[in-house]
Amino acid sequence: MIWATACMLPVLSSAQTTYHIKGQLPTGYQAVKAVMSYPPDDKGGEYKSDTALIKNGQFGFSGEIGRPQLAELNLIMPRSKAKPDRQKLSDESGNMKNVGLFYLDGDVHVTFDREGMASYTGGGNEQKAWEYYGGEVGKRSKAGDKNKDGLALIADATREVIRNYPDSYVGVDLLDIFTQAAINPGLVGPMYLGLSKRMQQSEKVLKWKPKLDKARDLVSGNVVAPDFTINDTEGKPVSLSAYRGNYVLVDFWASWCVPCRRENPNVLAAYEKYKNKGFKVLGVSLDTDRKLWLKAIKEDKLPWKQVCDFKADQGKAAKAYEISSIPSNVLIDPNGKIVGKDLRGGVLHDRLAELIK
């Protein structure tokens, strides 16, 4: 039995996914050809591009691929003397005109209406998972939670995809968004565990899994937080080590960072709840303009100590903590060890509730 299983592995690994894409346009629609682009594999190289002429409002693509991939379809219009604003690819709602996004997975039918908006029928499990994701994003966008930015909405929708389609490449592909830069283990870790064993062993996941493991180690409570000294709003030096004996959230932000400013009320709520229980916040700004920095502190009514060396991401603290994007934060325990990173929204409150009784 062991021998038989071993012999089957090469067959499984070389399995190909067959796809047939059929497109339909309204009578009289002016597009002349369709161009479909997609990654040929998971190695991160150049996208492959296929072109089909449109005849009698119809076009099609067929082929095989190593595994289902997300494809982008663009309708090419003839050169026109029309005004430029009639050639826009999106409407006022942000929906894409003359563009389709779908998975190369079985028989997929793409139908464009007279406004150039695409709809889909058919497809396999990956296409169903992709359409489910689109529905989740749409539902959350309409709900309009002003305390969540676009990335947080995408994270919520990705969790739901993984929960309902754990054996889908759609979840793996969506995780690209959260694993290309620094990984937040509190966000990515549960998503990884929600994937099927097969998806956990997929090529993409195996590439970033070591980075997830490293990020987990960082917040395990075994890593001492690097110290730094930066001047505050009055020009007086402030050292992180002065906060020993307390839980301290080192909050990286900037006046020009919209998601940071949107997150500030959440940090303020956590501060008010735990400030009398040994919890402090130290704001580290990546601003380069002193006036804008001070103005933002006043506007957002931030009561905790703020420091800035006006060197953006080349500042002492930003370099010490390898901050590549903001908002970002690091939670440090009374012993000066890191116990959390990139804790935003309810995740920050949950972690503080675990630690501060």
Secondary-structure topology with pairs:
Blueprint: H1 2-13, E1 17-24, E2 33-38, E3 48-53, E4 58-65, E5 70-76, E6 99-103, E7 106-112, E8 118-122, H2 125-143, H3 150-164, H4 169-174, H5 176-179, H6 185-194, H7 197-200, H8 203-218, E9 229-231, E10 237-239, E11 247-253, H9 258-274, E12 279-285, H10 290-300, E13 305-307, H11 316-320, E14 328-332, E15 338-341, H12 346-355
Parallel strand pairs: 1-7, 11-12, 12-13
Antiparallel strand pairs: 1-4, 2-3, 2-5, 5-6, 7-8, 9-10, 11-14, 14-15
Helix pairs in contact: 2-3, 6-8, 9-12
Provide a descriptive summary of the structure in words.
The protein is of the alpha+beta class. The chain folds into three domains: 89 residues, Immunoglobulin-like, CATH 2.60.40; 89 residues; 127 residues, Glutaredoxin. It is built from twelve helices and 15 strands. The strands form four sheets. Strands 13-12-11-14-15 form a five-stranded mixed β-sheet, covered by helices on one side. A four-stranded mixed β-sheet has the order 4-1-7-8, with no helix packed on it. A four-stranded antiparallel β-sheet has the order 3-2-5-6. A hairpin with a 5-residue loop joins strand 9 and strand 10. Helix 2 runs antiparallel to helix 3, helix 6 crosses helix 8 and helix 9 runs parallel beside helix 12. The N terminus is likely disordered. InterPro entries: AhpC/TSA (IPR000866), DUF4369 (IPR025380), Thioredoxin-like_sf (IPR036249), Thioredoxin_CS (IPR017937), Thioredoxin_domain (IPR013766), Thioredoxin_ResA/DsbE_sf (IPR050553).
